[in-house]
Amino acid sequence: MAVEPLRWRGDRLELLDQRFLPDKTLYVTCRSAADVATAIRDMVVRGAPAIGCAAAFGVVLSSGSSEGYAALAKSRPTAVNLFWALERMKRAEDLEAEANAIFDEDLAANRSMGKLGAELIPDRARVMTHCNTGALATAGHGTALGVIRSAKNKGVSVIACETRPYLQGARLTAWECVQEGIPCTLITDSMAGHLMSRGEVDVVIVGADRIAANGDVANKIGTYSLAVLARRHGIPFYVAAPLSTFDAATADGSQIAIEERPADEVTGYRGTRWAPQGVSVRNPAFDVTPAELVTALICEKGVLLQPSREGIASLLKGTPAADAAARRDLQ
Questions:
Q1: Which end of the chain has the least Cβ crowding within 10 Å, N or C?
Q2: In the Cβ-directed half-sphere of 114, how many Cα atoms lie within 13 Å?
């Protein structure tokens, strides 16, 4: 892979430090579950699938200790992949083999949903996306950006929203597109509606950090606004995510915990402050898009048009995600 967000070395986990991209390519070495938890919390590694993979290797580094599980579970609250991976590791007999399997399965799922999703993208489509959902956010290839990558031969181009306040679109998505030779135009988040109103956007596709049982989608803050704008302008709004992101135990989006991050991410960036001292700050990292605004969910098993509780239940039947939900319901 051109981009390696995670590298397992047998006795340590190396994580590409995404805080320094696109300026520098640096890796952080984790030798304990606490190291991995800190890396997740501090955004060294981010993206729901990548967080799940990293947490699995963190369990290996802790030899499955209860302290290791506890530290990892507290790292970030919204991405369900984290808890899905920890639950799966708790049932594993061979921890390292299971962590490697989680990594390999995520990569295979991304390639599968990329192929399925590419069929929905018209030739020469101008595709708007939000946050970063490429190889950096997964084991490789990507979810929403993976769909775009799989549709590259259709002559598609990307409109990347900068994704304030952490600039994942400006720093990471734009960087991945440049690396892959995919035409990419960067815009500020507030420009999205203007471009849609001028007929300059054909498709919107995003990833997800948690998908509730009814199809409500938690994703990077600003996703809900894009979904509303897309509906207003008659533009398809797709969500691409692996089955590990579906949470059958969460009835709807109102039950999803929304992480609030530090104020300094909003008041400035990398040591530069632009807001006055003493101002109050809100910094929710995610928002929830109602299922009714989602044209289709794309996962490795197929495409679910007009997501519903019944459709998602059928999609998850017999999967580890459904089994995990059933166990939680019994507790």
A1: C
A2: 23
CATH class of the domain comprising 113-267+274-330: alpha beta
Cα 65 to its chain centre, rounded Å, is 27
What is the model's pTM?
0.92
Identify whether the C-beta of residue 158 lies closer than 8 Å to the C-beta of residue 185. Answer: yes
pLDDT in tens, 250-298: 999 999 999 999 999 999 988 899 999 999 999 999 999 999 999 999 9
DSSP state of 154: G
Lowest mean pLDDT among 134-148, 215-229, 284-298, 317-331: 317-331
Which two structure tokens, joined as six digits, stand for 87? 């639950």
Is residue 321 within 8 A of residue 84, CB to CB? The reply is yes
Q: How far apart are CA 65 and CA 100, in angstroms?
A: 18
The catalytic site residues sit at 209
For residue 331, what pLDDT is reported?
44
**Which CATH number, 3.40.630.30, 1.10.10.10, 1.20.120.420, 2.60.40.1240, labels domain 6-108?**
1.20.120.420
* Ramachandran sector of residue 302 (left: φ over 0; alpha: ψ -120 to 50; beta: rest): left
- Measured in residues, the chain has a length of 331
